[in-house]
UniProtKB/TrEMBL annotation:
Family: Belongs to the glucose-6-phosphate dehydrogenase family.
GO molecular function: glucose-6-phosphate dehydrogenase activity; NADP binding
Domain Glucose-6-phosphate dehydrogenase NAD-binding: 21-206
Keyword list, A-Z: Carbohydrate metabolism, Glucose metabolism, NADP, Oxidoreductase
Gene behind the chain: zwf
Protein name per its UniProtKB record: Glucose-6-phosphate 1-dehydrogenase
GO biological process, one term: pentose-phosphate shunt, oxidative branch
Length: 503
């Protein structure tokens, strides 16, 4: 295998840092953030002098909190028990209600004592909380003097304070702008890391490599050769324990506004001048700014929505959305959405992008399908049976079974001139040894090292919401009916809505 020399040496381990995680007892911290930090530590990429301070309301003894941290290290009882013990020792707990102003004196004192004791000047605040808390926490961090490292009694020349903010970043365009105004009044743009974990996935990062390193694709990556692009994000699960959040948000806010549009920007962007954060994000922003505004005068031409009814997945019965715990029986929140989107620029003029996201599908699947235009003249029509669609397809599989497939037509073996679709496949698991890094591992390491390339900038966020908000208003005003589809089905009446098999 021909590798780019020296790439592995470019991976920079972090400097010592105080990582303060607001909402440490939540599912996100337990299932994603702590395991990512633990794996970075095992790989030697998280500085062993780093201190991880969990901030939460739950009352823990030291022993109880150590057990909680240990639960995030699945191999703690096995061969990696010493690594787990060392990681646990890096963690401390600060019991506080981070929504109450008077609690911040204690939080500040805890962080200050930790930083002074371990001679650390750099701080990373990670907001792993409900989105409704973001603005208040940012305000209280500032009001308590924690937004700058000069609250320490040690020399801290060149020290940084950074903040990681989870999605969803806002509820609509107005709330996103309000949150941006607040955050940017306290932190500069280069201190803010708005995270979308899809940007940390290997296959999503590989889109830019695939396009801009392999010279055979970029010349045909335009409206002259591409017929349409489909971006699918399907989940077999329902809403789980997220009923209160999801019923207020729906699948468009939860998936399409962030994950789907970020993948679209990678597919549609122009080559950046370089791979620095601003160059990449400038090109992504241009894509969002070129998206044709949603046509509210004829919404059903570019929007379909649905909600899962009772059905079966994997042979097991699953309830309807309105029968899930804590969901209103009359809820019309969409669990399926398909959006037809056009980008008005020279590269993509007239090429439809279909963004589809859904819950309770037969399987978990995220992929990008680029369908190329057929040959201008089918010379085999007269003497062979063309039984299949003759368009070539490029499939970028984000999850599961990460990889890339190019679907082409070839001659079937035999005496007749028959055509058959075959795949030229690349699969990560067979091409590379070892498991792929988790998205949060890459993104947390980048935030610690000050690389914002894979994070969203304020103008990106607002441009995405600017496109999505009229669609949300359309659903709110019931201008497009939310149809029912059986859980475990592909919702055929929805999937064929645009005259294309978008599921």
């Amino acid at each position: 295998m021909n590798d780019c020399p020296g790439v592995a040496k470019d991976v920079k381990s972090s400097d010592p840092c105080v990582i303060a995680i607001f909402g440490i007892t939540g599912d996100l911290a337990r299932k994603k953030i702590l395991p990512a930090l633990y794996n970075l530590f095992k790989m030697g990429l998280l500085n062993p002098r780093t201190r991880i301070i969990g901030i939460g309301r739950r009352k823990y003894s030291n022993i109880e909190y150590n057990e909680y941290i240990k639960s995030s290290a699945p191999d703690a009882a096995g061969a990696e028990s010493q690594a787990a013990a060392d990681f646990i020792a890096m963690n401390d707990y600060c019991c506080a209600d981070f929504n109450l102003p008077y609690e911040y004196a204690g939080i500040k004192d805890f962080l200050k004592k930790t930083a002074v004791k371990y001679k650390i000047c750099d701080f990373l605040y990670y907001l792993s909380t409900p989105p409704a808390d973001f603005e208040r926490i940012i305000t209280l961090i500032h009001d308590s003097g924690l937004s700058k490292p000069d609250f320490l009694d040690i020399s801290c020349a060149g020290a940084f304070v950074r903040v990681v903010i989870e999605k969803p970043y806002g509820y609509d365009i107005d709330s996103a702008k309000s949150l941006n105004r607040k955050v940017l009044s306290i932190f500069s743009e280069d201190q803010i890391y708005r995270i979308d974990h899809y940007l940390g996935k290997e296959t999503v990062q590989n889109i830019m490599i695939f396009r801009f390193i392999n010279g055979i694709f970029e010349p045909i990556w335009n409206q002259n050769y591409i017929d349409n692009v489909q971006i699918r994000v399907f989940e077999s699960e329902g809403i789980g324990s997220r009923a209160n959040y999801f019923d207020r948000s729906g699948i468009i806010r939860d998936i399409i506004q962030n994950h789907s549009l970020q993948m679209l920007s990678m597919i549609a962007m122009e080559p950046p001048a370089s791979m620095d954060a601003d160059s990449v994000r400038n090109e992504k922003l241009k894509v969002f700014q070129s998206m044709r505004p949603f046509d509210g005068s004829n919404p059903s031409s570019s929007l379909a929505a649905g909600q899962y009814a009772a059905g079966e997945i994997g042979g097991a019965p699953v309830p309807a959305y309105t029968d899930e715990s804590n969901i209103d029986k009359n809820s019309e929140t969409e669990t399926f959405a398909a959006i037809k989107l056009l980008i008005d620029n020279w590269r993509w003029a007239g090429v439809p992008f279909y963004l589809t996201a859904a819950k309770r599908m037969p399987e978990r699947l995220t992929e990008v399908i680029v369908t190329f235009k057929p040959a201008p003249h089918l010379i085999f029509n007269n003497f062979c049976h063309v039984s299949e669609q003759v368009s070539n397809k490029l499939v970028i599989r984000v999850q599961p079974d990460e990889g890339i497939s190019l679907k082409i037509l070839c001659k079937k073996p035999g005496f007749e001139m028959g055509l058959h679709t075959v795949s030229m496949d690349f699969n990560y698991s067979s091409a590379f040894d070892g498991a792929l890094p988790e998205a949060y591992e890459r993104l947390i390491l980048d935030a610690l090292n000050g690389d914002a390339t894979l994070f969203m900038r304020s103008d990106e966020i607002e441009a995405a919401w600017d496109y999505i908000t009229p669609i949300l208003n359309c659903l709110k005003n019931r201008e497009v009916k939310v149809k029912k589809y059986a859980a475990g089905s592909l919702g055929p009446e929805l999937c064929g809505f645009f005259g294309l098999n978008i599921c």
